[in-house]
Amino acid sequence: MGNVIAFKGIRYARAFRWQYPVEEPGWDRIYNVDDCLRDFKDFGPCAYQPRAFMDEGQDPKKAFHYREFREGVDFTYSEDCLRLNIYTSLDENGNLYGQDKPVIVYVHGGSYTTGSSNEKVFDPSLWVESGVVAVTINYRLGPFGFMCLPELASEAGHTGNYGLYDQLTALKWINHNIRVFGGDPDNVTLMGQSAGAMSATHLILSPLTKGLFAKAVLSSGGGLSTFLAPKNPDDHYNFWRKLMNDCNVSTIEEFRKLKPEEIYLPWMELSENTKNSMLIASPVIDNIIIQKTRTDDYKMGNYNHIPIMIGSNSEDLVVTIFYEMVRSFGKNVADYVAHHECDDNIRAYAYHFSRQLPGDNKGAWHSADLWYWFGTFDKSWREFTDVDKDLSKQMIRYLTNFAKTSNPNIDTKADGESIVVWESTSESTNRFMNFSDEGCVVSRVSTAKMVSSMLFRRK
Length: 459
Known about the structure:
Blueprint: E1 3-11, E2 13-14, E3 22-23, H1 33-39, H2 63-70, E4 83-90, E5 101-107, H3 125-129, E6 133-137, H4 142-146, H5 150-156, H6 162-177, E7 183-193, H7 195-205, E8 215-219, H8 237-246, H9 252-257, H10 260-272, H11 294-300, E9 308-313, H12 319-339, E10 348-353, H13 370-374, H14 386-405, E11 431-436, E12 439-444, H15 447-458
Parallel strand pairs: 5-6, 5-7, 7-8, 8-9, 9-10, 10-11
Antiparallel strand pairs: 1-4, 2-3, 4-6, 11-12
Helix pairs in contact: 8-10
């Protein structure tokens, strides 16, 4: 598929503190590829987050994921972080290889408070080699991305969700400009994991995203959940007002003048001492981008009806909750298809990732599947085997097939290798594709089976 190249750190929007993003002007063409690659050779800054102010490697609560995804990588941080990275390919003459290729846009996770697009695992070169254009994005996090205050609502007409509007604006920029990089704006797959999957779910539900993506892939966080449903902004006002007091300011103007660390350090301390603080620095119902709780919208059928791949891991954060989110989402799509005339491609494909990663006894922990979706094993400390590489190859094949055709089983560039047929939830609501120690296996999964197998492996 030609030589993979990356245009890094492209600005897609600008936004001042606690203001909504404004899309950047687009590109009409690439005048000189070499010059462009020199201008966009470095990843842009990450959003401010706790690791900007602490040594993750020395914090027992952070050390595992630091070693896994960030050790040895240099990061910069800024409020001016609204950048994206585009991975595409060139032919032997140095020209863009092909036009109107399918696009996968990846939204990183991190509980809406951490993460960035340039962690070790996030290199989508193998996707590009399979014939797609890939985009990874940064967006605002924590107090800069999700604070809610009545003064901000009075100022802009609504408050909160700044990071979610960043994602929306990135999708708009991609829709307006991706053809310049060889991508098809009408065939975009939105993909995310954890908070990225939760974000993608909100965007699937939003009336503002119609036409911006044609399908979605949701890993460990997508789907239906009462526990994770967004609250009204005023439910969070007391927390953010307490932060203002802890920062010794009384007005938004004073708040905006503080240095990032003068906000982040008190926020980190307040979060440490507040129950369920993770659910406070998160999306809210602003009646614009999010208009109802996720469960209400799904029950009413108010969402963009598109093909979906969705799943979770066997040792995930909240195993039964994530499993039920996947199961209920798949059943909802199946029920919709059964009772409505719709595109034959509108299906949900459910998976269960249970491959026990080599190197420790953590199993298929939350985020473990990222190494397999991206196939970036050479960047990990773990000694992955041919079993892992073969599984990753199949998972990437399902993913890129889905991006191309809306069906993980249909390969537009069949190479003669067999593929295990992945049934949709419309065909069987309790049969999952299991990415397992034995490879890709279709199996029946239930809450009881998941919990018992997890406890057995942990003995």
